[in-house]
Design a protein that fits this description.
Number of strands of chain B: 11
Strand content of chain A: 15-25%
Strand order of the largest sheet of chain B: 6-8-9-11-10
Strand content of chain B: 5-15%
Radius of gyration of chain A: 23 Å
Structural class of chain A: alpha/beta
Distance between the termini of chain B: 69 Å
Radius of gyration of chain B: 53 Å
Shape of chain A: elongated
Largest sheet of chain B: 5 strands, mixed
Helix content of chain A: 25-40%
Largest sheet of chain A: 5 strands, parallel
Number of strands of chain A: 12
Order of helices and strands of chain B: HHHEHEEEHHHHEHEEHEEHHHEE
Largest interface: A-B, 44 and 53 residues
Oligomer: heterodimer
Order of helices and strands of chain A: EHEHEHEHEHEEEEHEHHEE
Structural class of chain B: alpha+beta
Chain lengths: ~230, ~500
């Protein structure tokens, strides 16, 4: 990744750890330990700033205010302060997210990725997940270039799952989005559609996973690790 | 009862006994004057020749008095001269027809007695014993209601002389008429009550201003009171003002102390959470870098336990912080729109590492549309986080936990499901009951503190917390707005 991230953290151990996690993910990281120095930092070219709140010399919220006046770079606040007032205050000053300590490294990386993710341009005419390509207007679908013979209901169920690949979709949401409420919009009917879809998709590129307690999820086979 | 009404009634009630006493005194004086008048008239008549006529014919003297004597000072005696025709004259025996009746003198009848109270004649009845005893006691005259004669008084008058048969006279006279009722006195009492009500007006208005000033003062600010004056109302206002300033000082001291404690708690949390974060980082680094061979050896469960215990400590600390804030001041909790989709994602992300170590599947689903609820984000996150924490921590290996946020026509429904051992209704009742937090916060295996915080946070946010016990086992905890309809959904 070519994203450049600034970390403002005074604690040596934690700062080193955060920087290590980010660098192992491929980010380019700059680390400032002192609040006064952080006030003067050049924000140009940065993709994200991680700021601790309780810094020597200056409060992190003051840095958030200064940074927001000078740049629109996303700011993620890391703080051990748990109160809502602190969160609301930081967000009001221009922070984009607020993360309380302690946190797991993967939690931090997920939040960082979410902040760096560019807004997805919604494909209104077609939807692609791995090798699966759904033509939303024509009602057709292909998998790895091969045509899939789908009924309108199966196409609708697959489109609903493909709208958020990797995320579990509840049975209720799938029934509302894909099945005609006047004609057999039941859980049993949904299960039948999913069963037929699994057979038609086979092992090619994507798979429909049953999620306990929720419903179903469409996973790209290459990306399905959870 | 209003103060002015009470004041008027008080004055009236105070004046009524006084008026009654005055009325009683008036009647006593009137009667006393009347009695004195009768006695004076008797003495006067006796001094003007009556003595001689009486001593001449003591028995006839009384019987001859036929003309009533209605008022003090009226003529006293048998007609305007001496004994008339047919009347017993001096020296004549006093007996004759109707002697028995003569011994019962008419209303104006008079009997004569000697100084030692003996009847002057044999046919004169003995003097009433009560009157006799009072005369013997030295009284100049004595009066009492005439026995057997309603509306009459019996007088006994000692003459200025002590010789002869007419030293004491007894006579019967009508009870004097009652004096007129003193209407002016009654009017005066009513007037005084009315004046008291009017005079109470300014006082009542000042008390009302004082009450209004106290009621209309915004909470937490001192009331602006009218402190001028020297009367009791001003004294009350000054006393209240002094007390409110004293309370304000105490409140300010408490606020300062609370701020200091909060700051101390925040600093302590900061000092603890940073090394805890570092520890979590090291543990995860160990987990990530662990050689595949070690993953199957005894090291892996130890590391998994370390990760879980670290997570438990972090959860416990944040719960204690949340509990302290709930206890400190529920009213000061934030109320801004909370993005529940982001909240669910954060909670799941935070518990995934621990769930993975326990081989528990942790999944979530959120709707496409935004779901917000006004509230305190930290507390709501703790409420949901505690449900997920319990579902993961108390689940079996290879178990499942699902967090589902769905929109409903009347709001939303947030469900946390698991297929662990679940809780019986009795356990739920005990966990959520009074004092459960204190009891269970000391039990590392208990749900107590976390669920208590969830329950309190739900109540503060207008949410209901429902525990469902699926037939196939496990537990399903549902959070939804109060009043929203329950809508159970079959699980996949």
């Amino acid at each position: 990744m070519d994203a450049r991230i600034l970390v403002v953290e005074d604690d040596e151990a934690l700062g080193a750890q955060v920087v290590g996690h980010l660098e192992r993910e491929g980010f380019s990281v700059a680390w400032i330990r002192d609040g006064a120095e952080a006030r003067e930092v050049d924000l140009r070219g940065l993709s994200l700033v991680l700021v601790d709140i309780m810094l020597p010399g200056v409060w992190g919220t003051e840095l958030v205010r200064l940074y927001r006046m000078r740049s629109d770079v996303p700011i993620l606040v890391l703080s051990a302060r748990q109160s809502t007032e602190d969160k609301v205050g930081a967000l009001a000053l221009g922070a984009d997210d607020y993360m309380t300590k302690p946190f797991w490294p993967e939690e931090l990386l997920a939040r960082v990725r979410a902040r760096l993710r560019r807004p997805r341009i919604e494909q209104l005419k077609e939807r692609r997940v791995g090798d699966l390509l759904l033509d939303l207007e024509g009602g057709s679908a292909t998998i790895a270039g091969a045509s899939l013979e789908l009924t309108p209901s199966e196409h609708a169920v697959l489109a609903a799952l493909a709208a958020r690949p990797g995320s579990a979709i509840t049975r209720r949401a799938l029934m509302q989005a894909a099945l005609d409420p006047d004609r057999c919009a039941t859980e049993r009917a949904l299960d039948v559609h999913v069963s037929r879809l699994r057979k038609k998709l086979g092992e090619r590129g994507v798979k429909i996973t049953t999620v306990w307690g929720i419903g179903y999820r469409l996973d790209s086979v290459e990306a399905s690790s959870s | 009862m209003k103060l002015r009404t009470k004041l008027g009634l008080t004055v009236l009630l105070g004046l009524l006994p006084i008026a009654a006493s005055l009325l009683w005194m008036q009647q006593r004086l009137h009667r006393s004057a009347f009695e004195e008048g009768v006695v004076d008239a008797v003495l006067s008549r006796m001094g003007q020749g009556g003595r001689a006529r009486c001593e001449e014919d003591p028995a006839g003297f009384g019987r001859g008095l036929a003309r009533p004597m209605h008022r003090p000072g009226a003529r006293f005696g048998p007609g305007r001269g001496g004994p008339g025709p047919g009347r017993p004259g001096p020296g004549r025996p006093s007996r004759g027809p109707g002697m028995g009746r003569a011994m019962e003198p008419g209303p104006d009848g008079i009997f004569a007695y000697s100084a030692d109270l003996r009847p002057s004649e044999v046919d004169v009845p003995p003097l009433d014993e009560e009157l006799a005893s009072r005369l013997r006691a030295g009284e100049r005259f004595a009066v009492r209601p005439a026995p057997g004669h309603r509306g009459m008084l019996l007088y006994a008058v000692r003459m200025p002389w002590s010789e002869g048969p007419c030293a004491v006279l007894a006579l019967r006279r009508p009870v004097p008429p009652r004096p007129h009722f003193p209407l002016p006195l009654l009017a005066l009492s009513a007037l005084a009550a009315a004046l008291a009500v009017l005079a109470g007006g300014p006082v009542v208005r000042r008390i009302r201003r004082l009450t209004r000033a106290i009621r209309e003062t915004p909470e937490g600010q001192p009331a602006e009171l009218e402190l001028r004056g020297t009367d009791e109302v001003a004294e009350l206002a000054r006393a209240f003002d002094a007390k409110q300033r004293q309370l304000a000082q105490q409140m300010e001291a408490l606020r300062r102390r609370d701020r200091a404690l909060s700051e101390h708690l925040a600093n302590t949390m900061h000092d603890v959470m940073i090394p805890l974060t570092v520890l979590e980082g090291y543990l995860m680094r160990l987990r990530t870098d662990m050689p595949a061979a070690d993953a199957d050896a005894a090291t892996a469960p130890v590391l998994a336990s370390a990760i879980e215990e670290t997570h438990y400590i972090a959860t416990l600390l944040t719960n204690l912080d949340a509990w302290a804030r709930l206890d400190a001041d529920e009213a000061s909790l934030g109320k801004s729109p909370v993005d529940l989709k982001a909240l669910v994602e954060r909670v799941v992300a935070r518990h995934r590492p621990v769930a993975r170590e326990r081989l528990v599947s942790l999944e979530y689903a959120v709707p496409d549309e935004a779901v917000t609820w006004p509230g305190d984000e930290t507390l709501l996150e703790r409420a949901v986080g505690n449900l997920v924490h319990n579902a993961v921590r108390h689940n079996r290996r290879q178990g499942h936990v699902a967090v589902v946020l769905e929109t409903r026509e009347d709001g939303f429904e947030l469900r946390v499901l698991d297929d662990g051992p679940g809780l019986t209704p009795e356990q739920v009742e005990r966990v959520l009951g009074r004092g459960a937090a204190g009891e269970n916060s000391r039990s590392r295996s208990g749900h107590g503190l976390g669920l208590s915080i969830t329950a309190r946070a739900a109540r503060l946010h207008g949410l209901t917390l429902e525990f469902r016990h699926p037939e196939q086992g496990g537990l399903e905890v549902v959070l939804r707005p109060e009043g929203a309809s329950s809508d159970e959904v079959d699980e996949a």
